Amino acid sequence: MIKNYLKIAWRNMMKNKFFSIVNIFGLSVGLACCMLITLYLHYETSYDSYQKNIKNLYQVGTTSIKKGEKDNKNPYTSPPIAAALKQEFPEVDETARLLALMTDDKNLVQYNSPGGEKKSFLEENGYIADPSFFRLFTYNFIEGNPHSALRNPNTIVISETMAKKIFGSQPAVGKVVRVKSNMNGEYDYTVSGVFRPLNTPTHINANFFLSYAGGDMEKYLSKNGSDFARNNMFYTYALLKPGADAAKLESKFQAFMKKYAGDDLKRMGKDKKEFLLPVKDIHLSDKVSSNVTPPASKTYLYVLASIAVFTLLIACINFMNLSTARSSKRSSEVGVRKVLGAEKGALVRQFLGESILMTFIAFVIAVLITILLLPIFNQVSGKQIIITFPEDKFLLVGFLIMALATGFVAGSYPAFYLSSFNPVKVLKGKLTNSLAVVAVRKGLVIFQFIVSVILILASVVIARQMHYMRTADLGFTRDQQIVIPMRSAISKSKYTAFKNELTNNTQVISVGASTYYPGIDNAFDAVYYKDGQTMNNAKYTKMNYVDENFMHTLNLRAASGRLFSPQFKSDTGGNRIIINEAAIKQMGFESAQKAVGQNIHFDLQGKTYNFEIIGIVKDFHFQDLHVAVAPYGFQLVSANNGLFNYMTIHVKSGNINQVLKLIEDTWRKYDPNEPFEYSFLDETFQKNYLSDNRLATIVGYFTVVAILISCLGLFGLAAFSAEQRTKEIGIRKVLGASVSTVVSLLSVDFLKLIFISVIIASPVAWWAMNKWLQGFAYRQPVDWTIFAYTTIIAIVIGLFTIGSQAIKAAVANPVKSLRSE
């Protein structure tokens, strides 16, 4: 019986090749989209799943509490927290600290090869870690012992990729490299381990780990490592003993902090308490806004999951519409089978069998499409998703079950609909459709276009926001700005000579140096209060240390007072400061004019430090547009201070390659051993919107796919309608109706469906996109023009789809359609 069903199903597919191809194509595309998004969601939810200690592994975070301000949760702790937790609480088996080399996006690594050649590399994702780190976290060491790898001073553990780059095929353990970091100094490190990254993602995307012992950080901690209230820049991890209750342990932290930091925090006018965040939840946690690597947006994942579900639903709806559109072609077959004694159940099984067969074929095609498109999808999404059949067999079986279930759902309505035909009416040629059946088909098409319209609206809103972020006034000049990192003592010592030579060139407008520049993380801050206040009123202010030209190079604008200038040498004394408008508002000054000349203060370890405000700069976006402008300050330091991490070169528009060649030649002249690297300020700033741009691209692609599949559904309904009205159209043409009249007649009904879809979809899309835009402190509002554009796009797409069937029906020979009358 099953063999017979399959044989009949195959014959019907071959008999109606166009219908079968369109149906299978729609299903395969829908399944492929669903598979790609499912792979992405599986990847995002599998972070750190390979860790052996994952059930008992936690990150210790801090909640900063200040009266009158919102509690701030962050993943950082002060340096002595780790050791104190292990000492105080028997539930804690082991702790480890991790510190990002956050003042540099890349660090300079140099190696003197046996042949005497000095090799230099720029390596990113560097960290400093405790010796216990590899007891907590699982790493696949291919050289060295993880338990002792960071035990000795000046040791380094590197990735296999980094080892091959530096040492080729030679063993790495025991070899010595020099690592230059603005945060940890310049020291020789002995390679003590090499690890091979696993395919499963982790929230610690490290390329190398340095030991705490032996670098500048060890010296810093020897002086400041016992302060529980300050220096909150360490990621601290705790491995709890089996059976330990994390919630009970967390409840003890308030008393713990009061014991160790209560007096210091009281003097600072604030409080803080620690909390535990399971490592398995870090990547998808919204408890903190940042972490070792940026957490994923749950909203982003919900959006993609919704697209996957709705794309698959649209594909199922297409199957239903296209199958019922061909119903009259198979009505005689159903009638004859019923007259010959076929039961309804047998017909249902036959039609479901056809549906499942087509779905299985679509599944095979979808798997091939997924494999072919996965590299492109990885490039768009920024992930490294791979399919390995032995490891992902359960996922593939799940896809197959999903496909067969889709075939069952998609084929159920046509199966029950076709098998319900009355054989007498069918064989007399009196097949009619009830209003309920017609309403169901139209409702399905409306649903398809609701989804498509929502996706079109989302694409337009996201595209507008992306354009706004690319073109918004940031308060400084970002174009034609070249940023060069300075990672070694040599490059910093040569900065003044380098700057002087460059400024003599007519193509260079200005050269400035700074610790940070807009668009990158700024780790330095201070807590200031004005005269008449105390630390209870102090406000956090991000700080940048610059030379006298930096602010002029960026064209920062003064709201009051003045900027740093070579004419005022005394500004380098350390007690002069320039702050932005947001800072004076937060600190309670009446105006920028009245703030100039006033003093602000901060207290540290019982001592008060005073600063005179010499200028106020207009607010500018040192962070991206997701966040509001916060208090920011500048202090002037000399070049030999060692605080300059970057130089910024403002050049004239023109032949940029010629200018870059000039800068590189000058760099080689002063520092031939350090690689020359540069970036453009505008491009670096735009990297902050990488996830948003990826969302825009993915939504855009899947919008096109959803529209394509929806058009197939509309095409099916148009074909069905034209088929049902063949004789009516023939009579109208005999009575003199023109082609345009017939086309209009067939198109108006479908345009009504599109209008209904737009009316229903618009408020839903408006609500959803306004919620998405809340993630930006500065945004483009959703106005009426977006809905107008979307309506026009939907109508054009609908007319284009309907037009082919409408014109085909309108130009048909009426004699053929009426010859049986």
Keywords:
821 residues; 6-stranded mixed β-barrel; 13-stranded mixed β-sheet; 49% helix; 26 helices; single chain; alpha+beta
Report on the structure:
By secondary structure, this protein is α+β, with helices and mostly antiparallel strands. It is 49% helix and 18% strand. Strands 1, 2, 3, 4, 5, 6, 7, 8, 9, 10, 11, 12 and 13 form a 13-stranded mixed β-sheet that branches. The protein has a 6-stranded mixed barrel with strand order 16-17-22-19-21-20. A 4-stranded antiparallel β-sheet has the order 15-23-14-24. Strand 20 and strand 21 form a beta hairpin. The radius of gyration is 34 Å and the shape is elongated.
Short recap of the structure:
The chain is built from 26 helices and 24 strands.
Shape: elongated
Measured as a percent range, the helix fraction is: 40-55%
Distance between the termini: 40 Å
The pLDDT mean sits at 83
Low-confidence stretches: none
Number of strands: 24
What layout of secondary structure does this protein have?
Elements: H1 2-15, H2 17-44, E1 57-65, E2 72-74, H3 81-88, E3 92-100, E4 106-112, E5 118-124, E6 126-129, H4 133-136, E7 141-144, E8 155-159, H5 160-167, E9 176-181, E10 185-195, E11 208-211, H6 216-224, E12 235-240, H7 246-251, H8 253-268, E13 271-278, H9 298-325, H10 327-339, H11 344-381, H12 393-419, H13 423-427, H14 435-471, E14 481-485, H15 489-493, H16 495-503, E15 508-514, E16 525-530, E17 539-546, H17 550-553, E18 558-561, E19 576-580, H18 581-587, H19 592-595, E20 599-604, E21 607-617, E22 632-636, E23 646-651, H20 656-670, E24 679-680, H21 681-686, H22 690-724, H23 726-734, H24 739-773, H25 784-810, H26 814-818
Parallel strand pairs: 6-11, 8-10, 17-22, 19-21
Antiparallel strand pairs: 1-2, 1-12, 1-13, 3-6, 3-12, 4-5, 4-9, 7-10, 8-11, 9-10, 14-23, 14-24, 15-23, 16-17, 16-20, 18-21, 19-22, 20-21
Helix pairs in contact: 1-11, 2-9, 2-11, 2-22, 9-12, 9-14, 9-22, 11-12, 14-22, 14-24, 14-25, 16-20, 22-25, 24-25
